[in-house]
Design a protein that fits this description.
15% strand, 12 strands, alpha/beta, TIM Barrel, binds zinc ion
């Protein structure tokens, strides 16, 4: 478009404003297309509308007993953030998952430290951690996962979604520590899907999918699809309705919907979608 036409188009767009914007005026004067100054629109591969990752934390036994067969029935891949202490309850099952190479094995730290406000975490509270202690915990988690299932994780889920160590003025973020060691870090109890154009791979938003029926899940999926986002669901147990449980019936319905090519969604592991997002973000 010649600069004049760009200018005119800008003028039309600015009709509701009392004056032509300064930015449009200078862009036209310098013969620069206005579009070149705006961020490149993000596009998902193969014309997909949005991306979805299903993620599950803590290596709960129901993930092996109920989740893996359910995902296989639907042909859907997921990411499992393993806690070494729980893994041993289904050691053989996790080994098989790792060997099959369908799903992604991520890390959830070694000792699962969270805020002291959670009673279960009081003796292992983030408020009492230093960055060095956190680093050692994350390293040990990776070593154990490698020892138990032979995988070096590239994805990390912050236990309880919390990303700090220390308290008060001495509080520090441990996001940089995760950014140095992993491709991604996922939060929890966040309220939005990720905007692939601007999201920080080391601090991805994770939306809880436990204790929901399919209609509730679908509402979140449709909102993400409308904005072309990357929705990361985060759950714990998989099975009949209960505490911290992703309902198997709802999950199966979601998997079938997301895997149907007619619905224009890309459902895949965190690693695979993250690598695509990373490549797109690096194009200037
Ligand atoms: Zn957890």
């Amino acid at each position: 478009m010649p600069p004049a036409a760009v200018f005119k188009a800008e003028q039309r767009r600015d009709e509701h404003r009392p004056m032509i914007s300064r930015r449009s005026f200078f862009a036209a004067a310098l013969a620069l297309p206005v579009a070149a100054q705006e961020p490149r629109p993000f596009r998902w591969p193969a014309g997909k509308r949005a991306a979805i990752s299903l993620t599950f934390d803590d290596a709960r036994v129901s993930q092996i007993d109920t989740g893996i067969p359910l995902l296989a029935r639907c042909g859907v891949k997921a990411t499992f953030y393993l806690s070494p202490s729980n893994m041993t309850k289904r050691a053989e099952g996790w080994k098989q998952v790792a060997e099959a190479g369908v799903h992604e094995i991520g890390s959830h730290s070694y000792s699962h430290p969270c805020t002291a406000n959670y009673r279960f975490a009081r003796s292992n509270a983030l408020e009492d951690f230093t960055l060095a202690r956190m680093e050692a915990d994350v390293e040990r988690g990776n070593e154990e996962i490698r020892r138990l299932v032979g995988v070096k994780p590239v994805s990390f889920a912050y236990p309880c979604g919390q990303k700090f160590v220390g308290r008060g003025e001495k509080t520090q973020s441990y996001v940089p520590l995760i950014a140095r060691r992993f491709l991604t870090g996922r939060g929890f109890l966040d309220e939005s899907a990720n905007d692939p154009q601007v999201c920080d791979l080391a601090a991805l938003m994770g939306i809880a999918c436990d204790d929901m029926d399919y209609q509730q899940m679908d509402k979140i999926v449709q909102a993400a699809a409308q904005e072309g986002r990357w929705l990361i669901f985060a759950g714990h147990e998989i099975g009949k309705p209960g505490r911290q449980t992703t309902r198997a019936d709802a999950l199966e319905q979601l998997c079938r919907y997301a895997a149907d090519p007619d619905n224009g969604l890309w459902i895949d592991t965190v690693e695979r979608i993250a690598r695509y997002v990373q490549a797109q973000q690096s194009i200037k």
